[in-house]
Amino acid sequence: MKALVYTAPNEVTYRDEPAPSRAAGDVLIAIDAVGICGSDMHAYHGRDPRRVPPLILGHELVGRIVEGPDAGRRVTVNPLITCGVCDYCRQGRDNLCANRTMIGMTRAGGFAELMTTAAASVIEIPQDMPNRSAALTEPAATALHAIAAASRALARPLPEASVVVLGGGAIGMLATLLLRHYGVRRIDVGETNAARRQALAHATGADVYDPQQTTAAANSADLIIDAVGAIATRAAALAAVKPGGVVVHVGLADWASEIDMRKLTLAEITLIGTYTYTTADLRATVRALYDGAFGDLAWVDERPLAEGAAAFRDLHEGRSAAAKILLRPQ
Questions:
Q1: What pLDDT is stored for residue 330 in this prediction?
Q2: Close Cβ partners of 53 (under 8 Å, ≥ 6 residues apart)
Q3: First-to-last CA distance in the chain?
């Protein structure tokens, strides 16, 4: 089969790879579309020690089961393969499973014509759901999970909140679109890429600014969503949040940094870390995407898998205005 393989830092190679063999409890999926995630870019840059080349990356996907239970069905998947028996899995918090593995990390991912995963990780989709929508389930679920956590922590209902979203990549874009769907009217989005700022403004109607030129006003927002997770964005988030407000930390650009713990304490800021999504979040996101909660998704860029190396370079060099590039193996 053809696959796009992460072979070295700043290098992915489109080449022939052995087709995967389905093990007991697995399904074999023919991939229709797969998205390039920020974590795939971290691996590409050699910044993720968990992803060791040579490795087929890719975990945001839609495809058709060709072997295994429900063969012939179009599906997406939960990239996290969980044990189902630990305390977290039993609580419905399977994203925290102590025994989890992940496609595109501990086993081959979806940047290929074929991929195997656990049958228990399959997520059903409406059979007429467009590939573009279905392939966005995973990143959209990350946004949905983060906003749900914020909603539980806010002192007032979410539509009343003033919100700053830091980062206009896929998570920032999808979070902004979902906030709009939920009725939030006051949203500012900080994004450094000029072309992406234009796409964000067009798709979301939010007030978009360049954080290299300006910053969100101090103590101005009830909710900050840090979809970058860099040293600079953590500092910006703590500066912009109002006393009594909420900061949701989603991005993982930098591993560690100092934050303003004095403000966090004296202003009673709620700081929440959110990681991926639960299976319930994925199922809810499929329905939300199918019902149009995230808009028409016209901002998504689609390319053949054979052009994947160029897509990674475009993202690396900031040439892509699209917050999401989908690759099509077929």
A1: 81
A2: 5, 6, 7, 8, 9
A3: 11
Q: Of 77, 39, 72, 71, which is closest to residue 55 (Cα–Cα)?
A: 39
**Residue located via tokens 């994925």:** 282
CA distance linking residue 293 with residue 2, whole number of Å: 34
Q: Which residues contact 157 (CB under 8 A, 6 or more apart)?
A: 151
Does 187 share its domain with 267?
Answer: yes
φ and ψ at residue 255, rounded to 5 degrees: -75, -35
| CA-based R_g, the chain, Å | 19
Closest C-alpha among 326, 82, 323 to residue 200: 323
Give the contacts of 265 (CB within 8 A, at least 6 positions apart): none
Which residue range is the domain that position 114 belongs to?
2-136+300-328
CA distance 207 to 155: 24
Residue with tokens 């040293």: 231
The candidate with the shortest Cα–Cα distance to 149, out of 54, 2, 277, is 277
User: Is 162 found in the same domain as 124?
Assistant: no
CB atoms within 10 A of CB 179: 26
d(CA 224, CA 182): 16
Give CA–CA dist 85/225, Å, rounded.
32
Same domain, 151 and 209: yes
Q: CA–CA distance from 275 to each of 80, 250, 251 (Å)?
A: 11, 7, 9
- Closest CA relative to residue 119, chosen from 30, 34, 23, 31: 23
Counting as low any pLDDT under 70, the low residues of the chain are none
Total structural domains within the chain = 2
Contact of 247 with 241, CB cutoff 8 Å: yes
Token pair for 57: 């990356």
Q: How far apart are CA 297 and CA 135, in angstroms?
A: 11
